[in-house]
Please model this.
Amino acid sequence: MCRNIRPLHNFAPEATSQEVHDAALQYVRKVSGMTKPSQANTEAFDRAVAEISHVTEHLLAELVTSAPPKDREVEREKARARTAKRFPETAAS
Model:
């Protein structure tokens, strides 16, 4: 999975449309193998991003959980701690 695609479910506040779009864009970039499509592929690329965003928003709206919502800042700190553990030389900078 792309490193830049983050879980979007069960956060307070809920994921924004921009966050969903960014995740869809990363997904399409990954599966297509291109960061920026050529002019010939732009329409298909943009349509795929829009459709995946749409479906993802529906998915997030329909998912249910009994777990309490996660705090974005707490999750961000956990990710920083994992990164520091994996790459100690980066954390020292």
